[in-house]
Amino acid sequence: MTPPLDPKERGGPGLEPALEELRARLAADLDALMAAVGSLSQAQADWRPAPGHWSVGEVLHHLILSNSSFALVVTKLVERGRRGGLNARPDGRRSWPRLRTFADVKASGPVRNPNRVTPTHGLPVEQLRRELAESHRAVERQIPDLGGLDLAALRFPHPLRFELNVFQWADITGAHERRHLHQIETVLAAQGFPSARP
């Protein structure tokens, strides 16, 4: 389990139900990921199952870079909404279905990542765990800022050529982590994966 967010970052009692559900879902996504990698040694984090395949450490670095991009998009969309007075409408939608096809590797198949989120091999595993939590929370702590905004009107294109609204940009953080959790679990179960330290 990761350390809990400060109550102010969790949203407090005033967080609307759709945003509270989103916040709880993202927290569960991070917990699941950290549970899988929380005890990995450096040798285990650096091990690659085959040439051209990512190690668990590389997957984590990719997630850090991606989460940082997602956080930046959410920040910019929130700022655009505040500047433009894009306030929530009484009949406006406040939540959307989870981005399941993005998270499901079997449904979407392999995806070529943009260069800016291509990871580095061999980074210290403790640093990766810390920065993963920090990058995730950079998105999660912005969820209360979505309150009062017209979420559907605040949209930005994804590098894979589809468009997401600000709610979905926050949610894709967890969906993307779930996708790569499957990849991590595959590496951990691969033949030849180093055993834990004695």
Could you write a compact summary of the structure shown?
The protein has 198 residues and is mostly helical. Helix content is 54%, strand content 3%.
**Overall mean pLDDT score?**
90
Report the top-level CATH class.
Answer: Mainly Alpha
Q: Which fold name corresponds to the CATH topology?
A: Four Helix Bundle (Hemerythrin (Met), subunit A)
- What spatial form do the alpha-carbon principal axes imply? elongated
The end-to-end span amounts to 23 Å
Largest sheet: 2 strands, antiparallel
How many strands in all?
2
Which percent range describes the beta-strand content? under 5%
Rg over alpha carbons = 18 Å
Taken together, the total number of domains comes to 1
How would you spell out the order of helices and strands? HHHHHHHEEH
* SS-based class: mainly alpha
- Fraction of residues in helices? 40-55%
Spatially, the strands of the biggest sheet line up as 1-2
The number of helical runs is 8
**CATH architectural group:** Up-down Bundle
Considering the protein shown, what is the CATH homologous superfamily? dinb family like domain
List low-pLDDT spans: 6-12
Report what the structure shows:
The chain contains 8 helices and 2 strands, in the order αααααααββα. The protein is mainly alpha-helical and 198 residues long. The chain has a single domain, classed as dinb family like domain (Four Helix Bundle (Hemerythrin (Met), subunit A)). A two-stranded antiparallel ribbon has the order 1-2. α4 packs parallel to α7. About 4% of the residues have low confidence.
